[in-house]
Structure formats: structure tokens, C-alpha cells
Specification:
It is a single-pass type II membrane protein. Pathway: Protein modification; protein glycosylation. It is an enzyme of class 2 (transferase). Its EC number is 2.4.1.135. Keywords: Disulfide bond, Glycoprotein, Golgi apparatus, Manganese, Membrane, Metal-binding, Signal-anchor, Transferase, Transmembrane, Transmembrane helix. The protein has about 325 residues and is an alpha/beta fold. The chain folds into 2 domains: about 55 residues; about 230 residues, Spore Coat Polysaccharide Biosynthesis Protein SpsA, Chain A. It is built from 10 helices and 12 strands. The strands form 3 sheets. The chain has a 7-stranded mixed β-sheet with strand order 3-2-1-4-10-6-11, sandwiched between helices. It has a 3-stranded antiparallel β-sheet with strand order 7-8-9, with no helix packed on it. Strands 5-12 form a two-stranded antiparallel sheet. Helix 3 packs parallel to helix 4. The termini are far apart. It binds uridine-5'-diphosphate and manganese (II) ion.
Length: about 325
């Protein structure tokens, strides 16, 4: 009897302990935990984590994807630049391109003064990251400045700017007046050796006909500029022949593409006498009263007519005579 009781007690005790153990285990499994999401049932937590993972993957994908060019409603600025082969050419083009890279919606029309496109310029443009058109036209020998001629004797870059105009008209007619490439677009003639502030391009971007502004370090002056009274250009501040129709440097104006297309014969006269090249183009397009003064009513200098010194090659030539010149296969 005693033995029976004992056995029964042991069984009951065993049963109770097992039951408590089981209930405890079940509570641990399906119940609560003391992690951060301790209120969520497990599968809800897992699906939440899945969602989080997907979101992070999407974000990562976006960050890694190559940036698609942004669509822009800004008017295009076509920058026409004459350029010619010389020791400093690649340096000039590099300086220019790296300025232009900061200007939204800019299309560079680079016109080589050469019989054929050169590989230096072709490769340079391809690697530049800019939107561009590569043109070339050789200045006829009789129109070209010869070694030793004073720099003012003949206009430089006239044929190339005209070639740029020819391309713009061809493109403009093909694209149509209402196309984004043409509507509200602006044309600017930027020599390859000048210095351009980024602000200049925003000043010219909304040109209606012809906009104008000061140019620094030009014409033997600190600056030249149109003089503005009552919001209109009334004369020009220049040290030489203010009576010229437009005594403005090439760097001091921009023209709407619409105006260029509406005047198919307007061009630069390569035969124009010194100082009249800009006038030869502008006088058929606009009057002084119609000019649109920019750069705070022509009170700010945002472009400089800088000129690059010709590098001296005395040591190079001396070494070349000994067959020790710099490797010609290295592009400079
Ligand atoms: N240029 C050219 N062919 C030449 C000389 C000049 O295409 O034989 C280009 C030059 O690269 C520059 C522009 O014409 O973009 C004006 O030339 P430059 O800067 O020598 O003129 P300057 O500053 O003396 O007016
Ligand atoms: Mn120059």
C-alpha cells in the first residue's frame, strides 16, 4: 500500500513537472521575447525584415545605377569655338572643356582651322563628357596671319565661326523651329584662349535677340563695355573708334538662334578691316537700341580676353639636335 502510494506520487509528480516544462517551452516558442520588436509575432517580424531588405536593395540599386541625363527645359547654349593646332592647344581646350562641363544644356561646336579633323581634337572631344559637334575648315592662306605679322593685321577665326553658323542653320532647318534644340536656343562665340565665368552663361541663357555685357582685359583697357542708361545701351565705353557700328569684342555678345535662322546671310566678314569683324555680323541683325544689357546692366566683368604666352622651346630644340628631344609619341 505504502509502496503503491509512493509510486503514484512519483507518477503524478513526473506528470506535473513534464506538463510545466511543456507549457514553459510552448510559451518560449510562440509567445514573447525581449528583442526590440517584442510585440510582433515571429512571422510578422520576418516579413517586416524581408520588406526592409527589399527597400535597402532598391536604394542600393538606385545609388549604383549610372545617372541618366536629366531632361532639361533650359534653352540650349551653342558655343562656337575656332581652334588651331599649336603647342598650347590641348591646354586651352582642357581649360575650356572643364568650364563648360559645369554649364547645363551646353552644346560645344568646336571648329578646327585645318584641312582635316585632327586626332588630337577628335580624341579630346570624345573623352570630354560634353555634348559637342566637331567641325573643321582651313583658313585660306591669303587670309591667314603669317609668322611675324602683327596680330591685328587680319581677323582670326572668321572662317571657323562662319562654318559654325552654317552647321547651326543646317541643324536648325532640319530640327524645325519648334524643336527643343532650336526653340529659345542661344549662340555664343567663345575663343579658345579666353576665361569664362559660369555666371556668364546664365546671363546669356534667356537672350531674345542679342545680349551684351562687359569684357575684361581687352582693347588695351581694363575693360570695355556697353554703357546703359534707363535700361538701354546708349553708347560704348572703348578706347578706340567708338564710332564703329558695334565696338564690342567677340566675347561680349550672344545671339538667339532664332535670329540667326531668320537672317540666313548674316556672317563674319573675313576681309573686314581691323576691329570691324563683330560689326560685320551684328549690323545686319540688330540695332544698338535693341541690345539686351546683361551682367547687372553691364556693370560686372564675367569674361576676360586673356591670351596665352607662346611657350619657349629653346631647350627642346637643343636636345632635338642631339637626338634627345622629348618623345614625340607623347601628346602634349
Ligand atoms: N584661330 C584660328 N586660326 C588661326 C588663329 C586663331 O582658328 O590661325 C582661333 C583661335 O584658336 C581663337 C580665335 O581664333 O579661338 C581667336 O584667335 P586669337 O585668340 O589668336 O585672337 P586674339 O585673342 O588675338 O584676338
Ligand atoms: Mn584670343
Amino acid at each position: 500500500m505504502r509502496m503503491k502510494l509512493k509510486l503514484k506520487t512519483v507518477f503524478v509528480m513526473y506528470f506535473m513537472v513534464s506538463l510545466i516544462g511543456l507549457v514553459y517551452a510552448l510559451m518560449q516558442l510562440g509567445g514573447r521575447c525581449d528583442c526590440a520588436d517584442h510585440d510582433r509575432p515571429k512571422d510578422q517580424t520576418i516579413s517586416h525584415l524581408h520588406g526592409e531588405l527589399n527597400r535597402l536593395q532598391e536604394q542600393l540599386k538606385k545609388a549604383m545605377a549610372p545617372k541618366a541625363p536629366k531632361k532639361s527645359n533650359l534653352p540650349t547654349i551653342y558655343v562656337v569655338t575656332p581652334t588651331y593646332a599649336r603647342l598650347v592647344q590641348k591646354a586651352e581646350l582642357t581649360r575650356l572643356a572643364q568650364t563648360f562641363l559645369h554649364v547645363p544644356q551646353l552644346h560645344w561646336v568646336l571648329v578646327e582651322d585645318s584641312a582635316h579633323p585632327t586626332s588630337l581634337v577628335r580624341d579630346f572631344l570624345a573623352a570630354s563628357g560634353l555634348t559637342y559637334t566637331h567641325l573643321h575648315i582651313l583658313t585660306p592662306k591669303d587670309k591667314k596671319l603669317q609668322e611675324g605679322d602683327p596680330s591685328w593685321l587680319k581677323p582670326r577665326g572668321a572662317e571657323q565661326r562662319n562654318e559654325g553658323l552654317r552647321w547651326l542653320r543646317e541643324m536648325g532647318v532640319a530640327a524645325g523651329e519648334k524643336s527643343p534644340a532650336v526653340e529659345n536656343a542661344v549662340v555664343y562665340f567663345a575663343d579658345d584662349d579666353n576665361t569664362y565665368s559660369l555666371q556668364l552663361f546664365e546671363e546669356m541663357r534667356y537672350t531674345q535677340r542679342v545680349s551684351v555685357w562687359p569684357v575684361g582685359l581687352v582693347g588695351g583697357m581694363r575693360f570695355e563695355r556697353p554703357v546703359v542708361e534707363g535700361g538701354k545701351v546708349v553708347r560704348f565705353h572703348t578706347g578706340w573708334r567708338p564710332s564703329r557700328p558695334f565696338p564690342i569684342d567677340m566675347a561680349g555678345f550672344a545671339v538667339s538662334l532664332r535670329l540667326v535662322l531668320a537672317n540666313p546671310d548674316a556672317r563674319f566678314d573675313g576681309e573686314a578691316q581691323m576691329g570691324y569683324l563683330e560689326s560685320s555680323f551684328l549690323q545686319n541683325l540688330v540695332t544698338m537700341e535693341e541690345l539686351e544689357p546683361k551682367a547687372d546692366m553691364c556693370t560686372k566683368v564675367l569674361v576676360w580676353h586673356t591670351r596665352t604666352e607662346k611657350p619657349k622651346m629653346k631647350r627642346e630644340e637643343a636636345l632635338q639636335k642631339q637626338g634627345l628631344g622629348s618623345d614625340p609619341a607623347v601628346e602634349v
